[in-house]
Structures are given as structure tokens and as C-alpha cells.
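Lecture 7 notes. Example A: sequence first, then its C-alpha cells.
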Amino acid sequence: MSSIYSIDGSGTRASGSGASGAPGEISAEQFLKILISELQNQNPLEPMKNSELMEQMSAIKNLQAIDALTRQLGKLTEQSKVGEAAPLIGKLVSGTTASGVKVEGVVDRILVENNNVSLVVKGFKVPYANVAEVAEAEEG
């Protein structure tokens, strides 16, 4: 696992973790703090070359762009799931709840909680991914 030295001058080691929480990844904010620390503490007789600075600034911009793209893709995925689940309202479905309870009935509504789409069937939340069968509801 990679480590990053603290930039507060304490000399202690701290593990890097970024937006994804994966070991060794750092956020754009953390990267910028490290870059500023490097610039402040560089040897005045051997300053950082302009090309190195530009490479690091480019890396920051790329990191920010990837972060924004990831967020947008997450929103698009959620909207896609809502679009797929919405036509199931009024349909007869069978599936299981997150805790494994088997449920069968007509979909009352859909819920979006913490980027997860669920169908509400007889008061139970059935995650969209747990739907096993869909049929037309019988009228009557």
C-alpha cells in the first residue's frame, strides 16, 4: 500500500485515500496540497522545472475531469434505472427484498434512495436488480 508523508511538517506517515476510498488514491484537493507543499519546500538552488509543474497541473485537471465524469455517469446510470423501473408501476412482479424475503404483487411506486432504485410491492422495498419476473396485473 502506498503512503504519503504528511504535509503539516509533523513527519508522520499517513495513508492516502481519495474519493473512491481505494488505498493509494488521493483526491484533487489532497494532490493540490502536496503540490503546494513541494513548491514551498523545494531547494531554491534546484527549483522545479516548468515542464514538471505543467505536468502536475495537467494531472490535477485530469483528476478533476475524471471525478466530474464519474459523478455524471453515476447520475446517468441512476436515471436509466428509474426509466427502466417506472413502466413497472401497476405490473405484477415477483422478487426478493434486500434481506431475502420473497415478495409478489403489484408495484405501487418506485423509490430512489442512496442511488439505489427499488420497487414498492405490498409495502416491501424490492431492489430493481432483485426483480425475478414481471407480468401484466390482472384486473379485478
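Example B, a different protein, same format:
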Amino acid sequence: MVVLIAFIATVAMELWIPLVFAGLLAVLLRPFVGALEAIRIPTFVAAFFVVGGASLLFSGVAQLAQAPASRAIEDLPRAADRVADEVRGLKRTWSDRTSLSRTLEVIEDLQAEGTEAVPRVVIDAPGLEARLMAVGMNLAISAVAVVLLTFFFLVHGDTLFRRLIEVTPTLRDKKLVVEMVRAVQADASRYLLLITAINAGLACLVALIFLALGIPNALFWGLMAGVANYVPYVGPVVLAFALLLVGFGNPANEGWADALIPAVVYVAVNGIESNLITPTLLGRHFAINPLVILVWLMLWGWLWGVPGLLLGVPLLVCAKVIFLRVERLRSWAVLMGAHKADDVSNGRG
């Protein structure tokens, strides 16, 4: 069964990713639509304004980050070259002048001479700009699909839910489905709202600190800090290494201390957020064993790549909420939880 689900998820990846993104966005935006419905605005109009406002906000952030992102992408190859030069310099400075090291140097020189003598065939490949253009077009098409799906989820989701209740056979099952769907909506919405607010705050704080320190492309790296935080453990580690590369590749940084500043500042801010702010705001209810999170992220990263990493934890939270409401699956919630079984069985895990 698991293999079949993984096969379907992989084969229909281009279909499932927009659907899952749209479903999670609908859960995130549902409270705003509900607030407009409370003042007697029709659902269709409320969904239009909420989805339109969210789309404009996202487009504005993307537009602001476009120029810094382009500069950061252009700077990375130069940064990598400078890091490589530094590593070679350290190797020449600290390597022992033993017979083995001299032999290795001779071999490297011979290999270099041989490489120069052999004619090489260069195959024309699309440049970076063409590849980025293709990726941008695919992202634009997917974004349009996500926006439309989110709108229709918000407008017609309740109707679909009522039809689901109608076809559920027994009264006990109807009550269970209602409880489970409402719990997923409430808990997933709360989780997504809180984690989005936390990540937005982290992005703004990192960008402001980087601006104050004069670090290039501060806005872009602040935005990346917020996005990376949706992927616990993996995202911050990857971004910290990227900032190390940026620090050592910046020509304005003359020493190791200056080069380490971007990564050290980010790790410090992220450490405070992940160890103090997020646990306090999310509480024990959303606590999940870190090993379970890493294995889950590996699975969805393998199936869907970067989108799978971004969607993995919200899907895991939804799965835990469902497991807590279904008696036969509650043992899985105990396994996933970061606290003892009594807390989970009482609905606090």
C-alpha cells in the first residue's frame, strides 16, 4: 500500500503538488474568509478578495526580492571561486613537504599538462538565463493553478464536505468525520498561521540585521531565511552553509572573522527562534519527534524534491491531528510525538 501511494505520488507529481499547495493555502486563508462571511459578505466575494490580496502580497514580495536574488545568484559563482582559491592557499601553506606530497604535486602537474594537450569537445548547452527563464515559466503556470484551486477550495470546499457527510454510512462515522475534518481545519490553520507569522518575523529580522551590518543582498537572504524555516533542521543548515560561502566570497571581507559574520548571525537568530519562540507559541500539541520529521522530509524530498520539503511538515501535522482522532491510529500519534504517551492519549501531545 505504501509503495503504491509513493508510486502514484511520484508519477502524478505535477498534479499533486499544486493540489496540496492549494489545499494548505485554503486551510491557511479560511479564517479570513470566515471573518468576511461573518459580516454578511458572500463566500464567492470573500474568497475573491482574500485570494486576490494574498496573491498581490506574494507578488509584491517576489518583486522586491527579484533584483537582490539576481545579484545573489550572479555573485555565488565568484564566491565559490574565491573560496576555492582560499582553500588552495591554505593547502599550500599548511601541507607538509614530504615526499608523498611532492609526488602528488608532480602527478597533479602531469595531469594538468595532459589535460591541456588533449582537445576537448564543448557541447552547447542552454545558458543560465535560458534555464532560469524556463523555470520561471513553469513556476508561473503552477502559481496560476494554485491560485485558481485555492479559490475554488474556499468557495466549494464546504459543499464537498457536506456531500462527504451524506455518503458516510453510519451516524457514528458521520460524527467521527465531522470531528476529524474540523480538527484538521482548526489545528492545521492555527499551525500554518503561527509558523507563517514566525517565519515572516524571522525573515524581517535577519534582513534588518544584515542591512545594518552592510551584508550584500540582505533582503534576499532575509527572505531565504523565512522560506528555509519551513523545512526544519534541513533548511537552516543549508542556508547557513550558503551564507558561509557568501561570507568567504565577499571581496570586502578581509579575514576569517568578517567572513563568518553572516552565517554566525543567522545561526544565532535562528537558534533563538527555534528553541524559544516557536516552542512557546506552538506548544506541546504540535511537538513531533525530530527523527520522525527528518525521515518524513527525506521521504517527501525524494518523492517531490524542494516542494516536498516545503510541504512535508504541514502534511505531517495534519497526519498527526487525524491520528489523534482515530482510535485505531492513535498509536501512530504516540510514535510521532515528542512527549510521553499519556499526553498524546489525552489529546495534549
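Note on Example B: The CA atoms of residues 247 and 259 lie 4 Å apart. The mean pLDDT is 79.
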